[in-house]
């Protein structure tokens, strides 16, 4: 087994630290000033052609217009004007919610736009080159970029290697390397070449580049309603029709009862009953969900993908970089019989002092940890006159020659051969020790010493994969959410099993090829499961496209980015877990506010029905359990509450409902208690309070 | 023993009997609708109607068969009534007027059994037994078939096929309704219900004068009337008539028959979808609403308010002394929470709240436990709505029994939700707004309004009971109620079958701990709340101006 590091450079360390499980999926601070700044946009959205997209709010708009006309016909009616005013405010507040949600994205879009300045491209023409505007590039064009040039469009590097500043997109100021061939060839328009020269083949039409799409997504312009949002909208529309029926048919009943109602009162009743709260906040919730991803530097190409993330039941995670830190690390020194652990540690440390690989460094670190800095027998700082033997693919060993002593460490077979060549003895138990470590999923690294006593094996260094901190808890959390985690690795089944057990994943796929990965996804999907995965290489592209949620790393190839339905600008594979949480939070917020909105209606009936009919049937005054001051104040209070609750809930809609990973039952119980029961009770209190205030207004109370 | 205690014991006996029958009947029905064997008698029927019993139908084909059968049923029944005067076996009754014949045909084919006629004064044995009783079986079997089709939609995966309507219809009749009816009729005869073709007797009265008593095949019709949640009485007085419902025991037995199939179908549902627990959850939801309504009804009817009630021991007006307040309350709730509409007392004479409870029971959509078949499919549609809202709150795209509730499913369920409120409120409003229909009211104030609201509620929900007091045999009411019954029956069936088709095409999603568990009490609670809130919000203003205004005044 090779002790080499995984040839693929490990992805950058995640920028976001491991969050404790309970922490909510935050979304930045809600700035109340945004409400004021978004006001002009909210007014602009009063256009009926825009409003008609939300059936609930369109009904409110129609109601507002109607009451305005009616109030204008009877200008002395203060109550009518008050209702009219609050109906308009209801409409406005709904638009405000959407405008605020969009406003948060717009700031981000501005930053991106600055990166998309008009660039001049150097297009390769036969042997020479010509200068053309970036907007005139076509797919397949070859362009040259040198240090200081801005990349004119999305493409792949076909020649050369360069360091590129991608901060315009990722916000990460450290430059990244882009080179032809392999999985690191993609460059994005708007980024800046810092050094060297590359030739880039353009892969995207101007106007459809990554940065253009990002702007569209962030601004919400390209936002399409997701299936779940459409379904909810249909349900809300049908409830609106039911309430429209209930209110329209009420007039003949009222006439019979001898209590004919004014159109203003009926309109007020209708607006109170239809689910305005969720109707007003629905699109803001969707935009804010996308926004929460953007704030985590994840770009979802469609809202559908965000929703699917909440539904994911199988998560495919690459071992290296996601579950384990990129490299194996020394975990123990296991001496053969007759050798002390300290002797072995000292020899191993000595042989690794010059070894700059992560494994080598970890050997030194472990020895230092066990026996103090510079610890271990036979050690003595960085010795002068030492001759370092570097690792080569042929010898598969590294080591040091010092003062007639030769220390070697490396793969079992190579070290054994080395000892035998020198006529030394291989301890009886050396093979058994190595095998045991291999069986436990670790990598054995034999350490041998040749000195005056001859060549001999001292023992074995146990190298193992180090599972990232907190992964076990995270997987436990996922399991509680009903999500199965599958670790994907190129390791042999033994190693894979050991790591899988230590990390606490539910399953693993060892010696995985891209074809295996694809087959696994298809198998899971055939069982009705939704699969999420991350990937960066071109050979990941088919699997990324097949997965329901495919998160491409920004460092990956453009093929991978094209295939996935999300791109993680930080290239942090663990973020998949967070994406799932955001998807769930989005759905929960929708459900919670719908429940709240419908539960609210009960109290409104108790306010409005006695107000309308207690004159005709005095017995109905018993329904006035809030003891509201007068019929006018009761109806107005309900309307005012209905409008204000929208503004009150805007921050919740934007931040999302508090989410803790838990089983479905616990989650349902909590949210039902908070938004169902809460939604039943809150308006009774709210309406009563508003009534207490406005009953002091002359002509109302 | 106090009447209240007697009532509670009756309730207990009823629950015990239903519990005993639940598993065997539910499992039997599951076998009936999944078996591949055909009885010889069934083969004859298939050959006679030219149906291929093993052909699988997609939802449009299934729907076409339902509609074709029902259309033929309406036409035949209409023709039979119109020709009654010229046919033998009619006891000399005249042919029925066109509007009433239409109303009655629509009524019996839709399992409503609204009767704008008085049985013993208008319909002879030929129409009663050869027309109406036949539809009692057929309309019940249709309801069960549609429910089973929906259950198959949940149970099947990646197929559009929902079974064969003709097989479901014939088996439901031959293997479920007929055998139980035969036993039921015998029990009723044993209790003293009549079963003969004796015609009309003139009997001298004790105080002088003469009275006419009609005979007829009453017990057999009574059995299927309750078992099939039909409700059309042989006599005008329906189950208050001693020939139909002679004793408190027969009364309890009739309530048992009413609730038998609708409750046991939840077991069938659980069996066919592979999880009896899911069936229990639906049963628990139904039982919670039914028990709650029964308790409320007993409370309001037993409440002693005023000297007259004090002496009678409750609101005894319009109730039979042999059943008392408890026996009547149990019956009234059972008949309005199912689509039965048989009455053993006069709902119009109940307290204001009591009348309101019967109305609200129907307005819930008759799903607790509801009509045979229609109760289950109505409840499952509500479950789809509840799952959609509650399911979102657990952070997943909602799914029920492994089927995603997406755009199409919600579209169909939402339309289902709209049908009956539109019919009830729309037609009631039209009746109130137009000058003449109001003349049929025989009471003023909220009670008069309740009569009309009750009539349309009953018709659109295919219940068939009436708030006595409305003179409903007018062309306006015969026609509009007939339309309400037809649309109230078949529009939901169209939507339910379309829903079944869309579900059957889906792949089943396996449940995980992140899936909303719909077999737990918490979900039953959510479902009860969804049903009560959605219906309550729809009808609250109308109920406020009728029963609530009346009930709160006392």
Automatic annotation (TrEMBL), chain B:
Pfam families: KdpA (PF03814)
Localization per record: Cell membrane
Bilayer topology term: Multi-pass membrane protein
One annotated Gene Ontology cellular component of this protein: plasma membrane
Domain of life: Bacteria
Keyword Ribonucleoprotein: no
First-listed, main subcellular location of the protein, grouped into a coarse class: membrane
Record keywords: Cell membrane, Ion transport, Membrane, Potassium, Potassium transport, Transmembrane, Transmembrane helix, Transport
GO molecular function terms listed in the Swiss-Prot or TrEMBL record: P-type potassium transmembrane transporter activity; potassium ion binding
Stretches that traverse the bilayer: 61-80, 137-155, 176-198, 280-299, 376-394, 415-434, 481-501, 522-544
Family stated for the protein in its record: Belongs to the KdpA family.
Function: Part of the high-affinity ATP-driven potassium transport (or Kdp) system, which catalyzes the hydrolysis of ATP coupled with the electrogenic transport of potassium into the cytoplasm. This subunit binds the extracellular potassium ions and delivers the ions to the membrane domain of KdpB through an intramembrane tunnel.
Record HAMAP family: KdpA
Record's subunit section: The system is composed of three essential subunits: KdpA, KdpB and KdpC.
Protein name (database record): Potassium-transporting ATPase potassium-binding subunit
């Amino acid at each position: 087994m090779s002790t080499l590091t995984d040839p693929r450079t490990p992805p950058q360390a995640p920028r976001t630290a491991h969050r404790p499980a309970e922490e909510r999926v935050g979304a930045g601070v809600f700035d109340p000033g945004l409400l004021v700044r978004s006001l002009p946009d909210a007014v602009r959205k009063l256009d009926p052609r825009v409003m008609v997209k939300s059936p609930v709010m369109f009904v409110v708009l129609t109601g507002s217009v109607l009451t305005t006309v009616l109030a204008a016909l009877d200008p002395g009616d203060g109550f009518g004007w008050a209702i009219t005013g609050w109906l308009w405010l209801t409409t406005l507040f709904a638009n405000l919610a959407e405008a605020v949600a969009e406003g948060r994205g717009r700031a981000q879009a501005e930053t991106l736009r600055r990166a998309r300045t008009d660039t001049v491209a150097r297009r390769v023409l036969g042997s020479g080159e010509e200068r053309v505007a970036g907007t005139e590039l076509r797919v397949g064009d070859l362009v040259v970029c040198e240090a200081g040039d801005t990349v004119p469009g999305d493409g792949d590097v076909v020649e050369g290697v360069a360091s590129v500043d991608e901060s315009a997109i990722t916000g990460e100021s450290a430059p990244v390397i882009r080179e032809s061939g392999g999985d690191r060839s993609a460059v994005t328009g708007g980024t800046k070449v810092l050094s060297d020269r590359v030739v880039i083949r353009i892969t995207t039409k101007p106007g459809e580049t990554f940065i253009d799409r990002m702007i569209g997504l962030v601004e919400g312009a390209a936002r399409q309603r997701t299936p779940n949002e459409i379904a909810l909208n249909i349900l809300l529309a049908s409830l609106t029709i039911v309430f429209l029926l209930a209110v329209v048919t009420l007039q003949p009943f009222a006439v019979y009862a001898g209590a004919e109602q004014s159109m203003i009162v009926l309109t007020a009743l209708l607006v109170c009953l239809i689910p305005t709260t969720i109707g007003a906040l629905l699109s803001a919730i969707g935009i804010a969900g996308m926004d929460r991803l953007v704030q985590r530097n994840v770009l979802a190409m469609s809202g559908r993908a965000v929703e699917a993330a909440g539904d994911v039941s199988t998560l495919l995670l690459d071992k290296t970089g996601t579950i384990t830190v990129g490299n194996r690390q020394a975990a123990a020194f296991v001496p053969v019989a007759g050798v002390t652990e300290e002797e072995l540690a000292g020899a191993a440390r000595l042989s690794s002092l010059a070894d700059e690989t992560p494994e080598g460094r970890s050997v030194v670190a472990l020895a230092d940890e066990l026996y103090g800095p510079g610890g271990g027998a036979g050690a003595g700082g960085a010795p002068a006159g030492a001759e370092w033997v570097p690792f080569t693919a042929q010898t598969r060993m590294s080591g040091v020659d010092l003062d007639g002593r030769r220390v070697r460490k490396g793969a079992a077979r190579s070290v054994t051969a080395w000892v035998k060549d020198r006529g030394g003895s291989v301890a009886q138990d050396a093979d058994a020790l190595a095998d045991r470590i291999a069986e436990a999923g670790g990598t054995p690294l034999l350490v041998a010493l040749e000195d005056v006593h001859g060549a001999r094996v001292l023992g074995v260094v146990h190298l193992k994969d180090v599972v990232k901190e907190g992964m076990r808890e995270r997987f436990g959390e996922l399991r509680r959410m009903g999500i199965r985690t599958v670790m994907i690795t190129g390791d042999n089944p033994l190693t894979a099993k050991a790591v899988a057990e230590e990390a606490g994943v539910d399953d693993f796929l060892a010696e995985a090829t891209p074809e295996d990965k694809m087959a696994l996804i298809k198998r899971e999907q055939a069982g009705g499961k939704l699969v999420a995965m991350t990937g960066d290489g071109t050979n990941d592209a088919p699997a990324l496209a097949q997965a329901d949620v495919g998160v491409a790393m920004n460092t990956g190839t453009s093929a991978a980015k094209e295939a996935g339905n999300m791109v993680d600008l930080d290239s942090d594979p663990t973020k998949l877990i967070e994406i799932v949480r955001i998807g769930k939070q989005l759905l929960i917020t929708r459900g919670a506010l719908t429940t709240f909105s419908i539960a609210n209606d009960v109290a409104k009936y108790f306010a409005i029905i006695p107000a309308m009919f207690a004159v005709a049937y005095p017995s109905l005054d018993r329904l006035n359990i809030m003891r509201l001051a007068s019929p006018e104040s009761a109806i107005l209070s309900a309307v005012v509450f209905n409008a204000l609750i929208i503004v009150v809930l805007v921050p919740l809609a934007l931040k999302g409902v508090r989410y803790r990973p838990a089983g479905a039952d616990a989650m349902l119980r909590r949210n039902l208690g908070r938004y169902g029961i809460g939604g039943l009770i809150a308006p009774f209190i709210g309406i009563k309070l508003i009534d207490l205030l406005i009953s002091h207004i002359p002509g109302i109370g | 023993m106090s009447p209240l205690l007697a009532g509670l014991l009756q309730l207990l006996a009823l629950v015990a009997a239903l519990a005993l029958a639940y598993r065997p009947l539910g499992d039997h029905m599951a076998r009936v609708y999944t078996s591949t064997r055909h009885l010889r008698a069934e083969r004859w029927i298939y050959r006679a109607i030219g149906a291929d019993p093993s052909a699988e139908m997609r939802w449009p084909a299934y729907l076409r068969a339902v509609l074709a059968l029902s259309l033929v049923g309406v036409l035949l029944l209409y023709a039979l009534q119109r020709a009654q005067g010229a046919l033998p076996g009619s006891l000399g009754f005249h042919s029925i007027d066109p509007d009433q014949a239409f109303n009655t045909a629509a009524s019996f084919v839709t399992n409503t059994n609204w009767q704008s006629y008085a049985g013993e004064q208008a319909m002879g044995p030929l129409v009663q037994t050869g027309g109406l009783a036949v539809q009692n079986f057929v309309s019940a079997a249709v309801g069960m078939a549609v429910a089973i089709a929906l259950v198959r939609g949940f149970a099947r995966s990646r197929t559009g096929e929902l079974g064969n309507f003709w097989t479901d219809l014939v088996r439901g009749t031959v293997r479920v309704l007929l055998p139980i009816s035969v036993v039921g009729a015998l029990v009723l005869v044993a209790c003293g219900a009549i079963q003969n073709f004796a015609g009309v007797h003139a009997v001298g009265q004790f105080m002088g004068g003469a009275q006419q008593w009609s005979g007829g095949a009453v017990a057999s019709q009574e059995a299927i009337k309750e078992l099939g949640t039909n409700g059309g009485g042989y006599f005008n007085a329906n189950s208050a008539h001693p020939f139909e419902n002679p004793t408190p025991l027969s009364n309890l037995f009739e309530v048992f028959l009413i609730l038998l199939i609708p409750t046991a179908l939840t077991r069938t549902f659980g069996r066919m979808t592979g999880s009896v627990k899911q069936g229990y959850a639906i049963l628990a939801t139904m039982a919670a609403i039914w028990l709650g309504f029964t308790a409320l009804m007993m409370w309001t009817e037993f409440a002693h308010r005023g000297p007259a009630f004090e002496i009678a021991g409750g609101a005894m007006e319009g109730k039979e002394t042999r059943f008392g307040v408890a026996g009547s309350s149990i019956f009234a709730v059972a008949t309005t929470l199912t689509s039965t509409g048989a009455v053993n007392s006069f709902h119009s004479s109940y307290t204001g709240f009591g009348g309101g409870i019967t109305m609200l029971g129907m307005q819930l959509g008759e799903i607790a436990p509801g009509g045979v078949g229609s109760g289950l499919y109505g409840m499952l549609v509500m479950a789809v709505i509840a799952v959609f809202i509650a399911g979102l709150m657990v952070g997943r795209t909602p799914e029920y029994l492994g089927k995603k509730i997406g755009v199409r499913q919600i579209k169909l369920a939402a339309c289902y939700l709209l049908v009956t409120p539109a019919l009830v409120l729309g037609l009631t409003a039209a009746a109130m707004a137009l000058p003449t229909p109001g003349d049929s009211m025989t009471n003023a104030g909220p009670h008069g309004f309740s009569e009309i609201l009750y009539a349309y509620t009953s018709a659109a929900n295919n219940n068939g009971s009436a708030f006595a007091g409305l003179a409903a045999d007018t062309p306006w009411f015969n026609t509009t109620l007939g339309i309400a019954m037809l649309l109230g029956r078949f529009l939901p069936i169209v939507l339910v079958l379309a829903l079944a088709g869309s579900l059957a095409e889906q792949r089943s999603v396996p449940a995980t701990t992140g899936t909303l568990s719909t077999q737990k009490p918490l979900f039953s609670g959510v479902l009860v709340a969804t049903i009560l809130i959605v219906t309550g919000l729809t009808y609250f203003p109308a109920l406020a101006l009728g029963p609530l205004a009346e009930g709160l005044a006392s």
